[in-house]
Amino acid sequence: MSRIVQINLDDANLPPPTAEIEQERRVAMFDLLEDNTFVLPSREGRAVPPGPYHLDLSIRDKRLVFDVNTEDSEKAAEFHLSLGPFRQVVKDYFQICESYFDAVKKLPPAQIETIDMARRGIHMEGSRVLQERLEGKAEIDIDTARRLFTLICVLHFGG
What is the per-residue pLDDT for 132? Predict the structure, then answer.
């Protein structure tokens, strides 16, 4: 069972999210828990506690922290990723999301679709960055990466 069955976001110190951001978060968390792949490779010859896993995702000391435990609260892994590689793509993603949310209110469907395609492209780029940053730490499929990237954006929203 190499998957995440519970996820907690440490967003206590963030400003309240907008309704749109909160909706993105709810959908990402629901979809992530419904279907994900999260494999912890053995490291330094040591066996990895088997999943399913509980994931605590937070930003501490300007680093993205993945704290992974088993269902029995046994530490499975913890890794810290620099936020630097995510900064520009998160910024671009928020800008395009803002344009998209505005467009939905007043533009014709064809223009909304164009903005949505750009939004999905930037989101996929963020997902690829996440997969690269997790290389050697955790193996995730692209759908899991997309959903986790959305949650990273939610955490980055206040930072």
Answer: 96
